[in-house]
Amino acid sequence: MAKYPTSPAEPPSKDQWDLNHFRFAQMPVMWFATAIGLLDAAALIYFSAAEQADRYQRASDEAAVRARARLAETEDSMTIEPIDEIEPRFLPAFMMYGFAIENLLKGIIVMNNPGLVKDDAIGVPATHDLVRLASAANFSPTAEEAKLLDALSTITVWSGRYPV
Predict the structure, then answer these.
(1) pTM assigned to the model
(2) For 21-53, how does the pLDDT look when each residue is reduced to its tens digit (9 = 90+)?
(3) How many Cβ atoms are within 10 Å of 94's Cβ, its own excluded?
(4) R_g of the chain, CA atoms, integer Å
(5) How far is Cα 116 from Cα 31, in angstroms, rounded to an integer?
C-alpha cells in the first residue's frame, strides 16, 4: 500500500499525490458521488423537457389545425405548417440517466472487488453495456429492467450523442 504522510512536515511528492488521488478517485464513494451528480443533472433535463412537451403538443395541435384549414382551401395534397415551439429533448436526459446507472454499477463492482483499484489503470470493466455491468455487479435485472438497461446503453453509446 502507498506510504501516506505521517505529519504535515512530510507532504507527499507530486507523483505520490497523483497516485493517491488516482486511487481515491476509483473508490466506490467516488463512483456513487458521480452517479448522484449525473442523476441530478438528468432530472433537471427530464423535467424541463416534460414541461416543454406540453407546450410542444399544444403548438403541434395548432399547426395541424392550420394545415387542415390550408388543405381545405387549396387543391394541394400536402402542406407544411411550422410548429411554433421547440421540440422537447428527452434524449439527453436518458443519456444522463444511463451514465448515472453506469457509474452506480461500476461503484458496486469496485465495492464488491476492491482489488480492482489499480495504480496504473481503472480496474472496472471497460464497457458501457449496462446489462453486462449489472451482471458484473451481481445484480440480476428483471426482463423489463434488462430491456431498459439495454435501451439506455444504446442511448449512452450512440443515439444520445450522434445523429446516426
Answers:
(1) 0.79
(2) 888 888 999 999 999 999 999 999 999 999 999
(3) 22
(4) 24
(5) 13
Lookup result for grid cell 451482471: 135
Alpha helices (runs of H) in the chain, residue ranges in sequence order: 14-25, 28-73, 91-112, 130-136, 143-154
Q: How far apart are CA 106 and CA 29, in angstroms?
A: 11
- DSSP-derived 3-state class of residue 7: coil
Q: Residue 70 and residue 90: Cα distance in Å, rounded?
A: 31
Report whether 112 contacts 139 (CB < 8 A): no
DSSP state of 57: H
Residue 53 contacts residue 88 (beta carbons within 8 Å): yes
* CA 47, chain centre distance (Å): 15
Summarised one tens digit per residue, pLDDT across range 11-20 is 778 888 888 8
Evaluate whether 16 touches 3 at the Cβ level (below 8 Å). Answer: yes
